[in-house]
Design a protein that fits this description.
Layout lengths: L35 E2 L2 E2 L4 E8 L6 E6 L5 E6 L15 H7 L2 E6 L7 E6 L8 E3 L6 E9 L4 E9 L5 E3 L7 E2 L6 E8 L4 E8 L2 E8 H6 L4 E6 L9 E7 L2 E6 L19 E6 L5 E6 L10 E8 L5 E10 L2 E9 L2
Parallel strand pairs: 7-11
Antiparallel strand pairs: 1-2, 3-23, 4-5, 5-6, 6-7, 8-9, 9-10, 10-12, 13-14, 14-15, 15-16, 17-18, 18-19, 19-20, 21-22, 22-23
Length: 333
Amino acid sequence: MSRRAMLAGGSTVVAATVVGVAFGRGERHDPGPVGTVGSFDIDAATELLPPTPLHHTTGPQSIAFDEQGRLFSLQVMQGGIRLADERRTMSGKARRLAGDMCVTAYRHGDAAPQHMYLRGFGHGISMGVEPSDTGPQLWVESDADERTGYGRAVARIPFRHDTVLDSASPAVRHHRPLPRSHRIHPAVDVAANRVLVSHRTGDAHRCTTYALDEFLSGSYRPLADLRNLALRDGETLQGCAVHEDLIYQLTGTPYTEAGGDNPPTGGGNTFVSAIDMRSGKTAGRRKVSVAPHLSFREPEGLAVHPGPDQGLCVAFSVKSGGRRRLAVYACPP
């Protein structure tokens, strides 16, 4: 079972609460033609990145893109690694509970991907990238709870190749808009000036959005605060993204053996759903049927590719030899 399976436990479908300061009043999003979820055609997904190794052998947890189309991916650090300032090696379980992650930055044609280590930040269910004059700024969960390995805050940090950043560093500003929540992870829509904070309050999963510039200033006035009606009982949340007036989410688990509940012959149980921020209602749901042949095929990350090649991108963790690889498929508008 995926390490995230516990995320789905105990979820309760309840009414949505909308704080509608920037959206319409209760309009339901047009579901569009069959195969589409929100603005994107899930049935028309095509390969964007073939199964590709990341800096570590562990599986990807999330993806995001910068304005130049460079792909960033978070993964939990693998066991047996000792960084320059560490006194001993740590097991993979210890890294996971400590919230130690590795960021890989990949661009087609690069001789080698770049990387960065984030210690004590979290598990990396989702992330975002914001451009700046000094380079990409990563939006990540932070202040990992060492009982679970998941973040309790949100941080915006610069990407710096071949460096190590600790969550406890005074250079890291932790945003805590939801102090009673847990398993927090962000996503951003830079064009719409929005940041999404996906989180749990008790057993309920919620999606709260903020104006990005206000959030950075420390003003945590929500634009919308929704209970997640699109997450079904027993489903495992594997990523989220925000685009225009919709929140997109990815759910699913890896293939099982033929006798299991998710065999390859069934084509997987990966779904993309959308939530309308104006009403809180589900605005589409579709099974992701692309690349059923992949080995293992665990959904691991969702992001919108910016620019003229815009698409909603679904990431899979794929087993290959002794390591996991990242495969990405783009659903066009």
